[in-house]
Amino acid sequence: MSSSTPNAVDSPAVITVNLFLCVVVFVSVFSFLIAPGGLAWALSKPRPKSAIPGPSGLPFLGLVFAFTSSLTHRTLAKLSNAFNAKPLMAFSVGLTRFVISSHPDTAKEILNSSDFADRPVKESAYELLFHRAMGFAPYGEYWRSLRRISATHLFSPKRVAAFGVFRRSIGVKMAGKVLSDMERNGVVEVKKILHFASLNNVMMSVFGKSYDDFGENGGEGEKLEKLVSEGYEVLGVFNWSDHFPVVSWFDFQGVRRRCRKLVSEVNVFVGEIIKQHREKRSSDGGDTAVYDGDFVDVLLDLESDNKFSDGDMIAVLWEMIFRGTDTVAILLEWILARMVLHPDIQAKAQKEIDSVIGLDRPVTDSDLDNLPYLHAIVKETLRMHPPGPLLSWARLATQDTIVGPHVVPAGTTAMVNMWAITHDERVWSEPDRFNPDRFLTEDVAIMGSDLRLAPFGAGRRVCPGKTLGLATVHLWLAQLLQKFEWVEAGPVDLGERLKLSLEMKKPLVCRAVVRA
Asked: What InterPro entries does this protein's entry cite (predicted)?
């Protein structure tokens, strides 16, 4: 008697699964072979009549491995060159359709267009509540209200000038911390000092308080710094769930879990500060009093008009702290690394400071306009090492639109590779040479009108805190160069690591010698 075995005939379910997998593989390979830009562009409806040049990438995955590396900006720049696609290049990451500009003209079209006024909201940004804050809120009345409030009450020239004395006092404390580290260790690791100083600066503007522990001794300042650092980590990591919907079911990277834990801690931390402000306002004359205090007071004034909920306020305040800390510290670390590597440039800047201010009188904000070479050093560092080489956060096409000769379909994520533009020999002479003097012979605007160098972006989504950030960098750099000569304590590694911002791969460790 013969007996049948389970393997003799495939079950219909097995055949169906095999057929499905064959179809997926076929579609992926077919799209990989025929579609510029890869799978997401092959599936685009309607397909653009004029194909945007770009790599297909790996079947189904696209250029995913470019984004999991720490040098994404360099990889995309090389691909734009290879495909002769500097004006506009198409590519895919999973099912996400991208275009990227590596040319000033198309960059200006993207950044200034109302069709790119929105941002794609990453899962981590959503979980961290940033979709209710200025960075990721959809373009509309709520976003315009946030922008108007911050421009008037936090980033106006009057407010920036009002906090000049506090910025100067932080610079003095920072110099004292550098001196104590030198006495104790013989070297100084500047990153932590700069980061905590920057955090304190923003805390005073936003929350009306500061910390003196420089992130040490387990104090409240150290707790806040850990919250901010964890936020950078989860926002900076490449999250597969953003581009592969099936993966989002599993949260195998733990991004969602980490975000929710962080948000609960932020709610407690920021909520307590809001509570303290409410209590102070009540004791000083009632909840409806109008205050000219810090940014918390501004939002509490607006709360009485039912414009903001507690959740909205926490999201907005948290984003202000988060976004305001990173860029200043990272930029100053790159500048000091360049000063160590280029002692002749450092000496020229110090000669300028000595002639305008001297060694004994403290630097003030009013001195900064008289230090053009110091400004040139900052600009050249922004060109060589832009903190946001891909302008940090991308744009989203809200409808089918035209960029150059090409149609970009609605739902496409658009990026600008500012690093590629600032390292293009057709845009800049000797782009790989650190040469601040180039900005003494040509005054290049860096606030967004000239896309050859727009480190803060441009258009509706330009960084709102750019004036405050630059005022801080200029003042602190002048204070640190007036006080110390920055010299090597070993080889300086200019290797890069792109997380949320472009950091030094190996933090700068050097010696700071008191100038006599």
From this structure: Cyt_P450, Cyt_P450_CS, Cyt_P450_E_grp-I, Cyt_P450_sf, Cytochrome_P450_78A
Furthest C-alpha separation in the chain = 107
Sign of CA pseudo-dihedral 131, 134, 138, 142: positive
Q: Which residues are annotated as a binding site for heme?
A: 463
Alpha-carbon distance 64 to 242, whole Å?
11
pTM: 0.90
Domains annotated for the chain, with CATH where assigned, are 24-514 (1.10.630.10)
- The SS3 of residue 273 is helix
For 369-436, the DSSP string reads GG-HHHHHHHHHHHHHS-SSTT-SS-EE-SS-EEETTEEE-TT-EEEE-HHHHHT-TTTSSSTTS--T
Name beta bridge partners: 93. Answer: 62, 96
* Contact between 345 and 338 (Cβ < 8 Å): yes
69-72: long-range contacts (C-beta < 8 A, 24 or more apart)?
70/496, 70/497, 70/498, 70/499, 70/505, 71/496, 71/498, 72/390, 72/498
Q: And the tokens for 172?
A: 């003095």
| pLDDT tens track for 356-396 | 999 999 999 999 999 999 999 999 999 999 999 998 779 99
Tokens read off for 346? 């450092």
**Distance separating alpha carbons of residues 19 and 13, to the nearest angstrom:** 10
Task: State how beta strands 413-416 and 96-101 pair.
Answer: parallel
- Binding-site entries: 463
pLDDT digits (tens, 9 = 90+) for 51-108: 899 999 998 899 999 999 999 999 999 999 999 999 999 999 999 999 999 999 999 9
Least Cα distance to 114 among 459, 449, 466, 507 occurs for 459
Q: Is the pLDDT of residue 15 over 70?
A: no
